[in-house]
Amino acid sequence: MKSHRRMVVKVGSSSLVDDAGRLSVEKLRRIVHQIVELQQSRQWQVVLVSSGSIAAGVSHLGWRRASITLPEKQAAAAVGQTLLMETYQHLFNECSLAVGQVLLTRADIEDRKRFVHIRNTMLTLMRNGIIPIVNENDTVAVEEIRFGDNDTLASLTALVTEADKLVLLTDIDGLYTADPRARPDAARISDVWEITEDIERLAGGAGSSVGTGGMQTKVAAAKIAVQAGTDVIVTSSRIDQVLLQIAADTAVGTVFHARPEPWRLRQSWLAHGPHPEGVIDIDDGAAHALRTRPSSLLLPGVVWVEGDFQEGAVVELTVRGHVLGKGITNFSARDLQMLLERRQQGERFYNLHEVIHRNDLVLIEGGR
Ligand SMILES: Nc1ncnc2c1ncn2[C@@H]1O[C@H](COP(=O)(O)OP(=O)(O)O)[C@@H](O)[C@H]1O
Ligand SMILES: N[C@@H](CCC(=O)OP(=O)(O)O)C(=O)O
Predict the structure, then answer these.
(1) What value of ipTM does the predicted structure carry?
(2) Residue ranges of the PUA domain (predicted)?
């Protein structure tokens, strides 16, 4: 049982810099003071996911954001991240709270062992009243291992910490029916109970020169978090005491409501962490069984296998080529192939070969 409620607060670059693009201590202070108040209420543990390292570095170095290369961006992040942390440390220390820096790449979430270590570290920081401050490890993150945007990173942080609320603070007070910069007549949506394709279509790209991903990445992040049982609130950092209002369940911004039957942590990790190493295609009967009741995948349901994976690998499950979900296989690809060949030659299997245990399975499409 959790003794505190947990809130992951993500602050976008646009909420941290002034009009000239420099880190605004005043803006940081306003956020820090609210987190301190929540933390001191002893009802909330807060994790801060802060963007801003590239923006801070670029302005500190006097570079022009519009025309910098990737290595320059990564160099700017190296400079900006220390500036960012120095400022946070100073502001939190003034209020007698310690901070801990956590820099992550996608590869850290993909690997089950690293995932567990990150979780343990975060929980230990929180248990000791220390505020984890998370950002992408921009200086080392190459394309293949990048989150690419901190909205996704924040949703995975919410997943790792099993947060009750994920707050995405930005320069606009929620999701609108269209990007209000282009459509002044757009209206704010206050509640989203299901993230349908129509909702996804409303979201456009970044609105400022420092932002990444815009509303699109926020809606995608919300999709991950609500499925893990976290309420997601997209709102403006400019609203007075916004975090305290959210903690008190006052309606602000757009609330994406947590799914009533969320995935367990292991399923969430399976769905969003590892890349599959191969494919197991199953027949309609097996798919129906998996969809309608908690069942394991047994050998008779397997149609074909692709890839060169070992037992314990994460594989994609498909039905006639359409993605159904992911699972951890108890058999290597080689052994499965052999069993399928033996079945084709007429061998009957009386002992039930369990290919994927029901606890090691997540259905992405169609749910369960
Ligand atoms: N449907 C929409 N509703 C609200 N904002 C939208 C929408 N589509 C695009 N946006 C843009 O998303 C921007 C916020 O995202 P972004 O610039 O990435 O901020 P941050 O740096 O806080 O992550 C807004 O300024 C807005 O212009
Ligand atoms: N990791 C990057 C931020 C990337 C990002 O998603 O930015 P934003 O859209 O402002 O939240 C940085 O610290 O500059």
Answers:
(1) 0.97
(2) 278-353
Give pLDDT tens digits for 122-147: 999 999 999 999 999 998 877 766 78
Give the pairing of strands 354-356 and 297-298.
antiparallel
Give the global pTM: 0.92
Q: Where along the chain do its domains lie?
A: 5-262, 276-363
Taking the centre of ligand 2 as the mean of its atom positions, its distance from the CA of residue 335, in whole angstroms, is: 45
Task: Tell me which architecture the domain covering 276-363 has in CATH.
Answer: Roll (2.30)
Our answer on whether the CB atom of 208 is closer than 6 Å to any ligand 1 atom is: yes
Evaluate the CA torsion angle 304, 111, 150, 158 in order and state its sign: positive
- Asked if CATH classification 3.40.50.2300 holds for the domain at 5-262, the reply, yes or no, is no
Task: Tell me the best of 215, 233, 239 to mutate to test the pocket of ligand 1, counting ligand atoms within 8 Å of each CB and taking the most.
Answer: 215
Distances (CA, A) of 68 to 54, 63, 65, 209: 11, 8, 6, 13
Amino acid at position 216, single letter: Q
Q: Atom 3, ligand 2: which residue's CA is nearest?
A: 51
